[in-house]
Automatic annotation (TrEMBL):
This is Delta(14)-sterol reductase TM7SF2. Belongs to the ERG4/ERG24 family. It catalyses: 4,4-dimethyl-8,14-cholestadien-3beta-ol + NADPH + H(+) = 4,4-dimethyl-5alpha-cholest-8-en-3beta-ol + NADP(+); 4,4-dimethyl-5alpha-cholesta-8,24-dien-3beta-ol + NADP(+) = 4,4-dimethyl-5alpha-cholesta-8,14,24-trien-3beta-ol + NADPH + H(+); 5alpha-cholest-8,14-dien-3beta-ol + NADPH + H(+) = 5alpha-cholest-8-en-3beta-ol + NADP(+). It comes from Mesocricetus auratus (Golden hamster). It is a multi-pass membrane protein. The chain crosses the membrane at residues 12-37, 57-79, 190-208, 220-239, 290-314. InterPro entries: ERG24_DHCR-like, Sterol_reductase_CS. Pathway: Steroid biosynthesis; cholesterol biosynthesis. Gene3D superfamilies: 1.20.120.1630. The keyword Lipid biosynthesis applies.
Amino acid sequence: MTPREASQASLEFGGPLGVTVMLVLLPATMFHLLLVVRSGPARLLGPPTYLPGLEELWSPQALLLLFIWLGLQVALYLLPARKVAEGLELKDKSRLRYPINGNSIYDFFLGRELNPRLGSFDFKYFCELRPGLIGWVFINLALLIQEAELRGSPSLAMWLVNAFQLLYVGDALWYEESVLTTMDIIHDGFGFMLAFGDLAWVPFTYSLQAQFLLYHPQPLGLPMALLICLIKVIGYYIFRGANSQKNTFRKNPSDPSVAGLETIPTATGRQLLVSGWWGMVRHPNYLGDLIMALAWSLPCGVSHLLPYFYVLYFTALLVHREARDEQQCLRKYGHAWQEYCKRVPYRIIPYVY
Ligand SMILES: NC(=O)C1=CN([C@@H]2O[C@H](COP(=O)(O)OP(=O)(O)OC[C@H]3O[C@@H](n4cnc5c(N)ncnc54)[C@H](OP(=O)(O)O)[C@@H]3O)[C@@H](O)[C@H]2O)C=CC1
Ligand SMILES: CC(C)CCC[C@@H](C)[C@H]1CC=C2C3=C(CC[C@@]21C)[C@@]1(C)CC[C@H](O)C[C@@H]1CC3
């Protein structure tokens, strides 16, 4: 393999061609969803019933509001009382770098800079958890209030969607430190994907169910609501159990809650869990997350596909993410990872995938 072929082979997301498609497709998809969700037919796959003029897309008040929101989040991020946690150590094996312009679009998408910082202000870490994720909760809340104004009180479906997603965001903030070990922080640069993903995609497409309910009220009886709550609780139990088990094990393998679990040693000195949640499938946390995603959409009924967009998108994202993580773990742990895959053959769903 020539050095050029080798560098092409290690490109992710389909290389320059794949990311060019994503650069156009992602914002277009987001606008499409925002337009169809408020239209009468609310068809995920049909064209929007109207296209707004440019003057409708521009509002000085909205821009001001955005800057106020970002400013507030920056101020909160900089609060001196916050705990300081250490990230993973970087191995500085520097080499001379030469610009390869044919790859610039790929770099624009994935980002060249791993940890862009201004002093101690970390742009990627800040964007991952704060303005978009918390913004999503506020958008949901605004939709709930708007529904109350429109129909006298918020619907049961709207309450459920708000409560479920608030729990998800609250959980992410409560376990904030664990974001430091995600591939977004360790591996991906801060490019279009994460900047657009964190700041636009998350607040505007993750709130799609609440947007849908405002424009298309859905009746929801108590028995069905209880069943949906049960699905959410099961999803959250798996998601939190799996994430906490791994995080506790990585921090302190002799912690009594994980000390009894079976492990595989690796050449790096780290071990891989092979029993408990991580012995069930190779990504139990993704399984729990997907079950929760279903519980967020079910309150919207089954008359439309649109509220299930998140489930479809998220399945694709997690299948792709799982494949990327496998590659990275294979590079990191080699034979031990192959042994783990043999012992735990299913990736996300037991006996299915
Ligand atoms: N809502 C959303 O849009 C999204 C949500 N998520 C959620 O975020 C959370 C974090 O996900 P993500 O960063 O993808 O990855 P994970 O938290 O699943 O971490 C993967 C890493 O865990 C370690 N690991 C894997 N298998 C084992 C094992 N058997 N024993 C011990 N360690 C193991 C490896 O790293 P190492 O060995 O170096 O510790 C691996 O690289 C998940 O709950 C996911 O569902 C993720 C993406 C999007
Ligand atoms: C726009 C693209 C199609 C993809 C963008 C992906 C991003 C939206 C996601 C990549 C990883 C994420 C994580 C989270 C939110 C979504 C993004 C930023 C969490 C913070 C969600 C809450 C979880 O508890 C932790 C997640 C870490 C990864």
